[in-house]
Amino acid sequence: MGEQTKARDAEFQSFVIGCWPRLLRTAFLLSGEQHAAEDLVQSTLEQVYVAWRRVGSADNPEAYVRRVMINAHSRRHRRRLKELLSPRSDSDLAHDLPDPGDPIGRADNRGALLKALAQLPPRQRQAVVLRYWEDLTETQTAEAMGCSVGAVKSNAAKGIAKLRAVPGLAEMVTNGGRK
Known about the structure:
Elements: H1 3-31, H2 34-50, H3 52-56, H4 61-77, H5 81-85, H6 90-93, H7 110-118, H8 122-133, H9 138-145, H10 149-164, H11 169-174
Helix pairs in contact: 1-2, 1-4, 2-4, 4-9, 8-9, 8-10, 9-10
Keywords: DNA-binding, Sigma factor, Transcription, Transcription regulation
Pfam families: Sigma70_r2, Sigma70_r4_2
Domain RNA polymerase sigma-70 region: 21-80
């Protein structure tokens, strides 16, 4: 193995170690299942590794990889999206991706929130996850989703409105999870 290949592999490995938790969290929020999320991240990273020379030199490699992952998720579930986005059991919703900086991850009623999120149409779900969980700007979200900023605003607003309409969910958020 040449020195350039070793250096590229080390750079890729460092990138994966640094962004794995965030990619896995995003994949879980998109797919609603632990194993599907792990598969999605793994297959995305396989695609990215092949093109790492180009991806690694991008202005924001993590945003590039996130876009590849979102596209892969959309392609994978286009026909069976409704079935696959619905959680199969309450145990799937209890999956815990540890991220101490994620206040939603520490919420007592995380399962209820994830269940409500799983009921959103795919584009609304993507917009809500990227804007509010990943804290991307509208422009970054539009780039990741491959759509206009207006479409992001519309999908995010509709998604948030649907989440607010879920009985008990709005009260949980405004009361900080206290009953």
